[in-house]
Amino acid sequence: MTGAAIEATGLGMKYRGRDGGWALRDCSFRLPAGRVCALVGPNGAGKSTLLALAAGFLRPAEGTVQVLGGAPGEARAKMAFVAQDKPLYPQLTVAATLWAGAELNPATWDQDTAERIAGELPRDAGVRSLSGGQRTRLALALALGKRPELLLLDEPMADLDPLARHQLMGALMAEAAEHSTTIVMSSHILTELEGACDYLLLVDGGRVRLGGETDDLLAAHTLLTGPVRDTDPHTVVESRTAGRLQTTLVRRQGPVDTTVWEATEPSLEELLLAHLRSPEAPALLTPSAEAGKEVAAV
Amino acid sequence: MSAIGLRAPVAPAAGLRGPVRVLLRQHRRSLWVAGALLVLGIAIVVGLRIWVAVASSDELCADGDITRCGDDTYQPTYARAAAEGYLSGGGTVVLLLAALIGVFVAGPLIARELESGTFRLAWAQSVSPAQWLAARLALPAALVTAGTTVLVLVYRWGWSGLQSKPYASGLGWYENGIHPALGPTAVAYALLALAVGALCAVAVRRTVLSMSLTALVLGTVMLGFGKRRYELWPTTRFFGDDGPGSDAWHIESGMLTASGKEIYWKDCFKAGTTVPEDPTSCLRNQGGITYFADYHPASHFWPLQLVETGILLALAALAVALAFRVLRRRHG
What we know:
The structure holds two protein chains of two kinds. Chain A is α/β, with parallel strands linked by helices. Chain A contains nine helices and 14 strands. Chain A has a seven-stranded mixed sheet with strand order 5-6-7-3-8-9-14, sandwiched between helices. A four-stranded antiparallel sheet of chain A has the order 11-12-10-13. Chain A is elongated, with a radius of gyration of 21 Å. Chain A starts with a strand and ends with a helix. Chain B is of the alpha+beta class. In chain B, 60% of the residues lie in helices and 8% in strands. Chain B has a four-stranded antiparallel sheet. In chain B, a hairpin with a 4-residue loop joins strand 2 (249-257) and strand 3 (262-264). In chain B, helix 2 (28-55) runs antiparallel to helix 3 (78-87), helix 3 runs antiparallel to helix 6 (129-163) and helix 4 (90-116) packs antiparallel against helix 6. Chain B is flat, with a radius of gyration of 25 Å. Chains A and B meet through strand 5 and helix 2 of A and helix 1, helix 5 and helix 11 of B.
């Protein structure tokens, strides 16, 4: 798989009536196709806005976003989006909702996939009567029944108990692997995504602060433990001192002096938390996540 | 829509099939209610005519009098008097139905989806915002055009049966309570209502607020046309003592002076002035010589209907174009 699933350039979004603040500002990144990407960040970081822009629900205030090589509106048939509140028509039953999915996607609908994801949901139950978890299941069935090339999920598992979460995540990953679907999943619960995602976008304060393959991002950082001392030439992300011991998360610039430091690779959680606690740390995008890179190479 | 230079926002008809079918399913109950209202309207008109026909066995004279023929007293059957009363409100009922349609389109059909977020269900499937809105306009437009046309035809049939009787009262073709239901204006009002409803809904995006706004706009338009309808076509002037006939819509009358200046009756009876013993003296004292009356003859019915229909449809087209524009500006 080559090409970009999502490519944003200078993307900005402002909502009226919110003190004129920017929900997203000067946001540039690239998500290669075929990845399972975790979109993480604190509440209000701009994750939902970014997904809504990619889904073509909002018009950006500035910059552009390309989805599957075209404008979001043109890619509508090839992508699916499950919003955080799982919008479903309350008047319909489960069966009617799946029927509506078939009606609204005449070209791509796969009833078998939808039925499989819907699982044991009572087909004649009204959408109004479904629990939060059941709604999630139905919304995912609707999204996957469409056979999307790109699947955007905004906080998909928040309403699910651990067992259902595990089960649905498994089904999701199986579908994705079988059809090499690109998935973007937002969450502020890191454990929900760890292990499932091979790509990472950290959004904070309306900007992308980290972007790239999870492994590469982890490998680019080192946790240095040792005496309180300057860590030059490495870029410091976060440094904490406890007594005479200093723990610093650095972005390596050259080899680490292991005679002074004890060097370990940080966990994903350590990496993300360090960045969230240090808003001043510079952004890091691996080459595959940099907007415009692939285009220039071709 | 092309008149204000807008790119065609409506997707090809084939692209609307799915959204329209889903829409029908979503609002099945409202459709039943609308169908029931239509049947009720037809039943009322048919029932009134049957009632009048059955009661006509009480009529003693050819002109429908139930008292002694040929004398000064004239009394229609109760059925006829009642039917005249009910049918004289047909135009008002049609306007109210149109407003109801507008409010429904504004609220449950569009704004509620925008407010509750369910619009994202369709948009996240293969339906573009323009298709989504087009389905919400095209389906009601088709249903409303068909339903209102049937109502108008039935109403005309009921109205003409009573209106042709001598001494029929309050059934003039020009009455505000009747005129809107006698022709294409009824359909135009219904279409304008749904266009205004759609525009208010996409602009305001709040269910109750856009319903109220729609009702307010439609009420203003309907009252405005009710007040100024007579200006939509130039009146005919009649000279002489006797009026222009019972079928005419009397607008204004008075006398002309030698120089051709118009003196109106209405200026003679300003508030506070006492009516003189000979009312014509008021006009004559100001130099009036010949009586005149400005009126719309019955032949002006169609021009008046068509001009009003044209204006309403133009407004509807404008509202639809604006609605698509607002939607595209916000959602790309």
